[in-house]
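Annotated sample (chain length 124).
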Amino acid sequence: MEEIHTQGAPIFDLPFSQATKHNDTIYVSGQVPINPETGDIVGGGITQQTKQIMENTSAILEEAGSSLDNLLKSQVYLKDIEDFAEFNEVYSEYVSDPKPALSAFEVSDLAIDIVVEIDFIAEA
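Output written by the structure step:
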């Protein structure tokens, strides 16, 4: 197993990797809408937070030798399921055909004060 690490996504001093690569599969840890340059949570609600997550994920996948075009599965955690339609508008701008499998859940709380978190599985 290989650890994936890039300055293009938020770095946390916690016991997990931004992503790991095993054989031809990349497992991206739950991404949050933090600007890696400033370390700040982005504002703007579901639209801006989803955009930041997708940009962070793109940087991680590029570091692993892959891209958003190789996403296999996305798992979305929403603070409010009513944001799902707006989330999909933004998300669809970043994913290509064939679209990755997707699961979405409303959760009662997230680790920090955000409205969305997403983890991913991609092909290397």
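Annotation: The helical segments are 45-63, 84-91.
Annotation: Residues 37 and 82 are 30 Å apart (CA to CA).
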